Amino acid sequence: MVNVQVIIAAVAVVAAVLVFYFIFKRGSTPQAPGDTSEKKDSPEAVAQEKVNVVPEIQEEEVGVIASAPEDKSLMGRRKSDKSIQKRSVPDRGKITKQNFSEFAGERILVAEDNLINQKVILGLLAESGIELVMANDGQEALDILEHDTKFVMILMDAHMPRVDGFEATRIIRANPRFDHILVVALSGDTASDDIQKMKDAGMAEQLAKPLRMEALYNIIYAYTGKETDKDEFEVAVMTKNLDINKGLETCGGDGDFYREILSEFITDYADSSVKLGEFLRSNRIEAADAYLLDIIGVSENIGAHMLAGIASNMKLALRDTEQSYFSLFDQYKVHLDRLMQDIREYL
After folding, report:
1. Cα-based distances in Å from 190 to 59, 206, 207, 249, 302
2. If phi over 0 gives left and psi between -120 and 50 gives alpha, with beta otherwise, what is residue 202?
3. I want to staple 107 with a disulfide (CB 3.0 to 4.6 A). Which of 80, 114, 131, 323 is the partner?
């Protein structure tokens, strides 16, 4: 009797052990691949997910930083952007619609969302023989260019729905297929900051609204020509630091004279940051003020608007007793180096 009870007790103990064993084993069994229903939100799973994700993000960020251009406003620009030629415009007196027949056969893409403005341009050029292709916004202009690149220029409204003129121009200037196409801004914004923003995007010229017949004629004449006289054309450079068109205008369209002025600018002002720094560190404020005034005038004459603007701000800051002009001086050095590089490329 005693032996039977002992046997029953032993069997019960073994059964209990087996039950606990299988329960424990089931709880520790790894989930099948793709089965995340039970452990997806557990602290251990979240921690593991972070371990797996963070290194991948860090690697991507390092790659972006390493490949980013030094000046984002110049992203996508290439030397080939500087191959669009411009010729000086002779005095033709009063311009009429008939004058535009000189450009018969040229093709112009017009990106303009305002129907009235479209009609104005169509009306001016309707009988000229110029082929006009209309786009209602920047995206439509880009779509047209994907299949048709035979345009001499694009008249690009700055402010449009979907893709505005600034973004569309940046995309165009970043694509070598469109290097031969001039982009001309159409905008009622005529402040110097607005015009600089257009140039930074890659718009080489600007036509103010309301559109003037003479201004439109001059732009088309300057960048077209059935018979190209090499002595009559100059290269239009699209750069943030040097406005070649303005410099040529100052020199009466004489390219050789303009190059001579640029060469003298390099000789006289390439080390201007060194001289200016000496004035500031020795607290010779009056000498710095006079030197900055000289730099402003010369920079504007050659088309170095950015450098002239920094010099102007620094000149005003000379009156500040907290010497905030040293931060502007650092900007001056950076932009002076970039300007010198652009000038040397042009020369």
Report:
1. 44, 9, 9, 18, 20
2. left
3. 131
Q: How many residues does the chain have?
A: 347
Q: Which domain holds residue 289?
A: 261-346
Spatial distance between the Cα atoms of 285 and 281, rounded to a whole number of angstroms: 9
User: What's the rounded Cα separation, in Å, for the pair 135 and 168?
Assistant: 12
d(C-alpha 44, C-alpha 159), whole Å: 52
Q: Please report where in the chains the tokens 């003037």 appear, as a residue.
A: 212
Task: Kindly state whether residues 211 and 130 are assigned to the same domain.
Answer: yes
pTM comes to: 0.48
Give me the residues of the chain with pLDDT under 70, please. Answer: 1-83, 225-240, 252, 320-324
Exposed, middle or buried: residue 109 (CB in 10 Å: 0-12, 13-18, 19+)? buried
| 273 and 154, same domain (yes or no) | no
Residues 174 and 224 in one domain: yes
Domain final residue, candidates 205, 237, 269: 237
Nearest Cα to Cα of residue 113 among 131, 138, 132: 138
The strand pair at 233-235 and 85-87 is best described as antiparallel
Which residue is listed with tokens 């535009």? 100
Domain count of the chain?
2
**Distance from C-alpha of 56 to C-alpha of 21, rounded to nearest angstrom:** 40
Distant-in-sequence, close-in-space partners of 337: CB < 8 Å, separation ≥ 6:
none
CATH code of residue 159: 3.40.50.2300
pLDDT in tens, 168-183: 999 999 999 999 999 9
Q: Around Cβ 204, how many Cβ atoms within 10 Å?
A: 25
Same domain, yes or no: 141 and 284: no
Domain contains 338: yes
